[in-house]
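Troubleshooting: if your tokenizer reports a length mismatch, compare against these two reference records.
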Amino acid sequence: MTESKGDSPMSPPALESSLIKRKHPCVLCQQRKVKCDRNDPCANCTKARVQCISTSTMPPKRRKKRFPEAELLARLRRYEYHLKNYGADIEAINQETSPLPKDNSPKVLHVDNGERTLAIRRSLKNVESNLWSDVADDFQDAQDLLRASSDDEDFQNPIIQTYDALTSDGSDLLFHTEIARDLSSLHPSPMHIFRLWQTFLDNVNPLTKIIHAPTVQQQILDASGNLEEVPKKTQVLMFGIYSMAVNSLTNEECISLLGEEKNALLAKYRNGARQALLQASFLRSSDLTVLQGFTLYLMSCLTFLIDPRALFILTGMAIRMAQRIGLNFDGTTYQLKPFEIEMRRRLWWQIIFLDSRVGEMSGNGPSVLQHMWTTRLPLNVNDSDLFPDMKDPPVEHPGITEMVFVLQRCEIIETLTKAKKATGSARVEDDYIAALEARLEEKYLRHCDPQIPLHYISAVTAQIGIARLKVGSRQPNLFHSKDVVLPGHQRDMLFELCLFQLEKHHELVTAEQLNKFHWYMLKNFPFPSQIYVLCELRNRPIGALADRAWDFLPNAYEHRAIIHGDKKFQKPISYIFLAVANLTVKAWEAREAALLPFRPSVPPSIQKLREHLQDHRSSKSTPATQSESSPSTNLESYTEQSSDAYMWINQPPINPDLTFDPLPPMQNGMQTEDAMNWTFWNDYMQVPGTAPAFEFSGNVQGHSQF
């Protein structure tokens, strides 16, 4: 037994040798990919005279972690989201089984100019309901991860859903009213809906073009069949359309078409617009349709239905909403659909027009013109050339289209902004103006047919706009400052340009074929030009230009009296009109004094203005010591909060010693070239015996009745 044990193969030396044998190859053999005898040291390392290192002594390798499923799903959702915004059909792509073709096209790197934040660049890819318009990367990443953590629909947009659940969006500060649950009772009957829609198409749409008529018409047809189920954004747009349609009609037309007076209809539909805006949570909405309806609502308020100072603030909200959804950046850079690009351009430029007019009325100047934007001009195409699913942009027409009126206004404002960017001043050089005039003539005006109402108003409005720019070219501040003495020929040119604007505006108002566009002309009267002409007529009572002015002014006043009757003198009184009337009478008295030997006959309109002023003075208890030349305070409540300039040209106060007498000196010295206070108008349009409060008449159409 003892011998057998000693003869066994597992002798002690063999056991000791097996214990030092390694289980794994050494590091060098692994690297060289040769067989290792797994001894310590191995034969290969001994032959190479290097240290034999066992893999068991090396630190373990870090295994590559598996890609987190939640993060992967979040990324896939984001890629699909952006692909959809680029126009890709995700469902069709998912059904494809063929391999993807190799892309051998050169890669184009788009370098941003630094003016846009990444958040805005992302927001521009979503137009319909952009909830990511002003969020940071971390915010969106967090939203994506939270969404991917569950398939539950409640977690698809957790952050935005939390915000939407907040009870207040601040709109009660603006429209302090109880939100109606059902707006169907505020809508007109289906028959009246179609009449209002047709009125909008005939009277308003040709001059605004902020909607695509074929698309909106289908929406209105669908909504009129079931007013209880109208989408919130469509409600806003419909009430905006109602308000503007009624605003474009006369009181007699409202009674004939709709069976109610204009003021009652305006109050009803403007209330409906406010209710619809509240229901749509418009202050936190990024929907283009909501902004379209809000813009139409603001346009309907240009008849002094809202204090212009408050309207200026509300218009600023529209600008902020437009900036939030990126309308101030052109959509071509972000490969939006051609239809979306075009509708965004149209809306942005209409907001610019609105801001310019409201800034002029409020005395604050257009705020949007202080900023730069990259949004291009709308295309010269008809609505029939556009449809929502189009893949390629439409080809522009070389002549006249439905966009002619809007485009010529865009060209004028673009010239002004380019000149301001180049020179830093509101002065537009003659070269710019000459180039603009030639461009308008070549692209639009030479194709206009005066027998077509839209062509006629477009051509004349372009002439008025060019005249405004020429005024700015010769004197950026229409009423020159203390240190500026204008040569005689310069003053003649300014007087003629201002008179030209008044004559052309009167030409539009008196043209019967343009009756449907009266609403626009009444909202866009060249008020500063009229004041300049009247003030100059006190200083130049006779002469060729004075004769031309007095041939025009009485006829213009008589025509406005026919349109408006005596509404301007009803309570509450428009003190602006009284002040202008007083200035007109003073200008005529200066002419009478200069032509005393010839005893000129008093025009009936001037005599009527005198009678109205005398009636107003007699109704007030005026102190005997107050003279007609003493400063009145009739505009004080309006001037305390208004400053700066009107639409095109910033106005400083003028030196009364240069041209006008007797006029009070300006208080607090001369202001800067870029500012003007509404006290200026108060000083030069004095109405003795007026009350200190400044009131607006509900019948006043902006500055239209002056």
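Reference record two:
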Amino acid sequence: MVTRLNMVFNLFVFLLFSGLGHCQALRRHTFVVQNTSYTRLCSTKNILTVNGQFPGPTLYVTKGETIIVDVYNRANYNITIHWHGVKQPRNPWTDGPEFVTQCPIQPGRKFSQKIIFSTEEGTLWWHAHSDFSRATVHGAIIVYPKKGTSYPFPKPHAEIPVIFGEWWKEDIAEVYNEFLSSGGDPATSDAHLINGQPGDLYPCSKRDTFKITVDYGKTYLLRLVNAVVEDILFFSIANHSITVVGTDGSYTKPLKRDYISISPGQTMDVLLEANQRLDHYYMAARVYSSAAGVAFDNTTTTAIIQYKGNYAPSPTPAVPSLPWFNNTNASVNFTASLRSLASKEYPVDVPVTMTHKLIFTVSVNTFPCEDASCNGSNGNRLSASMNNISYRSPTIDILEAYYNNISGVYETNFPDYPPLVYDFTAEYLPLELETPQNGTEVRVLDYNSTVEIVLQGTNLVAGTDHPMHIHGYSFYVVGWGFGNFDKDKDPSNYNLVDPPLQNTVIVPKNGWTTIRFKADNPGVWFMHCHLERHLSWGMDMAFIVKNGEGSDAQMLPPPPDMPPC
């Protein structure tokens, strides 16, 4: 009898979780992760794809909708899929980061992931969250306004996803393994991509260059996604300005610029007015890299804007002017200009009274290497940390351990402040500061607590920019600056009126950024740098947000097909 009751209860939980108990069935999508042969830069190799597509399929949803994605792993590698920027209210189970909210989907297995959209509207994206697999396993998510509502700008003539990517001639799994074994930086990519194509400036690539055909006088919405593995990018279109109207699934005040800066993990909605003479024009992207002495892919990827009409195009499309690769001011001047719409229809809700004021340092570090035989500085192994703790991935996921009270998987001692206080951005720092602690530490938050985090960059090993991402939340970017954060002076300059609402933000080189959010989404939520080498080195941590009172403030139960460890 007890077994029968358990079966009935489990069936009820499954129906409740999957949505099959509702009158209207949820829309389902099928993602088949598989090896597919692709040719780029004059050579052919197998890459991991979803449904054989590179980039992967675009998901089209409506604000507030819930969908099911059935993920089948028919590849030879473990895989997880993350729905970047989707808050997944009360549902961390299908958020995706490996060994944080789930164990990986093993070859030959399937995981049905329930994706709950809530307040997001605009462009988001999905990607693999295991090793470097997201180099080829990624795609856009387009969240349309609810029926009966519209964009806060004139409806564009057409919408085009523009996904920035990266290509290695070598197998990406080999790149990852060599990176881990060497103790140094990963091999730089051989090309950057726009919608899977390198563009005219690379060998064997001109014929397949991505092209957008436009009508003079019309406006187009470009939905930009930076799926690049390692690099922040500058992007521009020759002879055209673009107007930013949204970022990370949230609308912004219109911001007209000749170029943008976009980091891995970020998305932007930009309007392009086709208002130039009939011709062909390059759109182009290349790296912004502020770390001295760190190699990067210095090539430029291009696509073409071509006007309709009866005319003879110029022999070579016009080329946009992009900031120089190490122009930090160009990057921060753009990102610092973003503002939330803050209108009646799209209000802001910036926390003012704070429960927690936290300061997290984000640093590149080193660990000693036997016989100084690694490729990091001084023969050491490169690593990274937050508040001097280099994250160590467990062997079962933190969420399962938390939900089932399994001890020994993680500790709850992540510090609120840097355990070592020094001149974080000094030009020269003692070598002994470079070695962090190692551990799997989380910070526990009460439900509905308000949180301010100052993300403080340091100049250890190599000062550089860090695009920091939090799963399960969007946050208000209320302030930033260069140098060390001053708790007595800097808060007076915070923008609490119309700060941008983002899920990924760039911490400037040797500077700081302050974010605020309300911890109203119970579960386990990962925070990390979105440069994959930094994530792999340990610039990560997790929040556990406790359940609140009432059923609508508590985590949903796990789905019945959670991948086993």
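Descriptive notes for reference record two:
- Residues 1-23 have pLDDT under 50 and may be disordered.
- Residues 96 and 173 are 19 Å apart (CA to CA).
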